[in-house]
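Example 5.3 — Lipoprotein
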Amino acid sequence: MTGPMSRRALLGGTAALVLLAACGRGGEVLSPPLVPRVHTVWSDHPDGPIPARGDEGTPFVLRASGPVGGPLVRGGGLDAELGDQRAASYVNQDLGTAVHRIGARFGFVPGPGTSDDGSLCLAAWRGALPPNDPGVTEAPVHLVATPQRWILSLAVGSQLAEIGAGRFDPALPTDGTPLVMDVTLVGDRAEIALPDGTTTVVRDARIPTLPAPVACWEFYRHAPGGAAVRFYETWAA
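Solution (predicted structure tokens):
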């Protein structure tokens, strides 16, 4: 499935940093985790606006669309304060060279609703930064999770192309329970640790052709009633 980046029609902790190699579905062995080059623990920050830099000193570059009141640190997590309608907040860090791993400890928290119209996304960008920087956006990874499902896509020529998906059974909790999602890119493989505790591997020959230096942690609400997201910890390598 493909679609414009702007429409997002595809939607229809620290323990995470020491994940051991494991078997994905189908018996594939996952690579040892890369040591993060950027890593921020949000519980170490006082309540208030997002700091200018992450814990390792790399600046944050923010983008947003729709009604957004954050990002801000509150109660040990990073919230976007999205309005209860279509909105998105993008927290980016430029690593300078290609991103090979991105992950987060996060939770779906009480908010305007708990539906699948609320999600987080882990991505790596090259070119223009969404939602509206001029130029072409491309990405070797665009991994979305809602309380009920996950979707892995690429972005080529500012178009999303779905390459993997699945459902969570049971659905993920929406009471703030900390969850972990992490993805490592190795050649044509996206090795994914999903927030329900399972792992999977998705292959696509285009992944290594799209090296991208900007790591992104995105809050997204597709429509009113969507689940709210809070980040407790973010990292990339």
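Remark. Confidence is low (pLDDT under 50) at residues 1-24.
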